[in-house]
Amino acid sequence: MRMIGIREFRKIAAEALSKIPEEFLEKLENVEVWVEEEPDPEMLEELGLDPRETLFGIYQGLPRGEQSFFQAQVLPNRITLFRRPILEVCQNRDEIQEQIRKTVIHEIAHHFGFSEKRLRELGYG
Q1: Each residue's pLDDT tens digit, 101-119
Q2: Could you tell me the pTM of the whole model?
Q3: Which of 31, 39, 42, 123 is deepest in the core (most CB within 10 A)?
Q4: Which CATH number fits domain 6-65+76-121: 3.30.2010.20, 3.80.10.10, 2.30.40.10, 1.10.3720.10?
């Protein structure tokens, strides 16, 4: 697949987000979606992942069930999509869009407190 620049990738990501069911999106108060080139080695190490493993995205923040009315939320929670790993496994624009959609839904589940183990049990891992 030809290399897609960051601007085009963000456009595809916006299209993918528009296809996520509204019941998920409406519960994403204070969650931003970012695009970065790829995860850095320190991030992979913190996650216990081998540098050769593929990471399409990550949720960073406090899961919704752990948030409290009395906590001051200074920074928004964030879902970060990693452009290069997604492009490496996708053959065309439709596949990119579908991988982004699946990745964001997976990370939304983390926002709601689902663990990787539970996501695998549900068939989303």
Answers
A1: 889 888 888 777 777 787 7
A2: 0.80
A3: 39
A4: 3.30.2010.20
